[in-house]
Amino acid sequence: MFKEQILPFLNPRPLPRSIVVMDNAKIHMYEELQDLVHATGALLFFLPPYSPDLNPIEVGFSLLKRWIQRYANMAFPEAPLVVLKVKRI
Hints:
Elements: H1 2-5, E1 19-22, H2 31-39, E2 43-46, H3 57-75, H4 79-88
Parallel strand pairs: 1-2
């Protein structure tokens, strides 16, 4: 599935001897994905478990969460109502 549905949309990297660093998300553990990375000649490394400080995207997520907390009521006036409805499910 990954090869057919996702790979065509990726950047034409990694190049041989590139270093690919992944977190420990379940999808990253699939052997097929790891084989695709290794087939390019790239080196594959995994971050240690529970290490958001080493994962740059976590900084972006943190900024996004802060923005949502600060401006959600202005941008999405129904947001509190949606949260209450979701909690009831």
